[in-house]
Amino acid sequence: MLDNNNSFGNNDNRNLSDVFRELQEIRNNPQAQQAYVNKTKHSKRHNKVNRIKVKKRTNPFAFNFHEKNNSTFQKSDDLKLSHILTGCGILVISMALFFPKDLAFTESYASTETSQEIEAYELNRHRLNMQSIISENAGMDRVKEQATEEREVEFETTYTDNATLPKGEEIITQEGENGKDKVTVVKTYENGDFVEETILARETLVEPTPKLISRGTSEFLAKHQVHIGDTMYFVKDGALKSEPSEEETSTDVADVKASIDVKLLELPSEEWAKVSFDGIEGYIKTSNLTSPTTTPNIVEKNRVQRILLKVNIGMELNKSSGLTLKDYEKIFTNIPNDQNKVFQNNYQVFYNMEKKYNINGIFLASIAIHESGWGTSNIAKDKNNLFGYGAYDETPYESSLDFDSYADGIETVAKSLVKYYLNPAGTKIYDGETAAGWYYNGPTVEGVNTRYASDENWHTKVYSYMEMLYKRLET
């Protein structure tokens, strides 16, 4: 029988589950392992003495060769079940001590309760190191402080649709400004680092000013890339209306030629626009308006149209026509009536006279066409005199002057008209001279007719040539 002080020697009220629990304690405690070994050795010596005294074997399968009677084996009469269980326990403990932990108890013969305990142990093999966690948190410096401070409040941005702006375009009508609040707050810091805050109270000191943005919605303005106040152009001849309507109550206030520029005043709708034409205001359909973006050559056409608008029988001729050298070339090139190419070859001369003496070159050329029959008269061909300059009605050929070239004759007549017919006396003209104004009756073709030609209809004939030449700009 085992020593009562030995936990494994008490066979009363012990089962295999108790043995397993004791085994786990010994496995995890080296000191307990050594104590158990010492106690086991003592227990073996004690049991040996007891066996000698009672002369009984604890192992029913062992042979005693020291007995006097070696021919027979006796089974102990006192062998009990508790002795067998104790021996099994000793065997299991020995295996646990001398074999690796991973190989021990791979298969359990214990009760269901013991199996569950072992499973729970295995699940918690990697348990948390609570001491480490407590140490880390114990060293954390967590501080809270209350503060009152002024903070900026960001302004909001508000958008408003604007039908007078191109679609997609935005204009800032009011700049935004941040406001200011007085805030009472509790701030939390951990180890000196800001973690969070809790706002306790807020007081408005300055209200924020919202930013206002006007956002365009007009597809018409976006298509032509224009704004209210910009210049636009008529696509075709049209009439300005008194109202944005085709109704009879909307009357015509002005006729406008194609390519003429107008100022865009308002856009009451995507269908109608209010415009100004030379100070006259009225409405026109937006479909009859264009811009350089959508019609790239419209500006050049407008320049020509603006020149043509000034062409009339009462126009002032002591001013430049506004035509370019290219315009003169276009006007005088390939005119069917100019069979001898007299005017085509001298278009630059007429242009130079305009620039040098401030006289309308088309008017000067129209006189030459009328007087020389497109350069076919004898005076023109024989004397390079396209104007019949110096001729008298009685003897026109004989009395007319000779010139070395058509250019000489053209310049002589230009200077004479500027000095005597087109400007009043005392007007500064060319080369520091002043106009004599002897035959001045106004700077118009009709005024020149008064003293220049005996034919009372001379001015209408000359003007008809002027109109014809100007219209060639449109071809």
How would you sum up this structure in a few lines?
The chain contains 15 helices and 13 strands.
Main beta sheet: strand number and arrangement?
Answer: 5 strands, antiparallel
Number of helices: 15
Summarize the amount of helix as a percent range: 25-40%
Q: If strands are numbered along the chain, what order do they take across the biggest sheet?
A: 12-11-10-7-13
Cα separation of the termini: 140 Å
Order of helices and strands: HHHHHEEEEEEHEEEEEEEHHHHHHHHH
Query: Helix/strand-derived class?
Result: alpha+beta
CATH architecture of the largest domain: Orthogonal Bundle
- Rg computed from alpha carbons, rounded to a whole number of angstroms: 62 Å
Strand content: 15-25%
Q: What is the overall pLDDT average?
A: 82
Residue ranges: pLDDT <50 for 5 or more in a row? 1-12, 44-79, 100-126
Taken together, the total number of domains comes to 4
Number of strands: 13
CATH topology heading of the largest domain = Lysozyme
Overall geometry comes to: rod-shaped
**Regarding CATH, which class of the largest domain?**
Mainly Alpha
Q: Could you give the topology of this structure?
A:
Elements: H1 16-27, H2 30-54, H3 81-98, H4 112-123, H5 130-138, E1 142-153, E2 157-166, E3 170-174, E4 179-190, E5 193-206, E6 211-218, H6 219-224, E7 231-234, E8 238-241, E9 252-256, E10 261-266, E11 272-277, E12 280-285, E13 289-290, H7 298-309, H8 325-332, H9 347-357, H10 361-372, H11 378-383, H12 396-399, H13 406-421, H14 445-452, H15 458-471
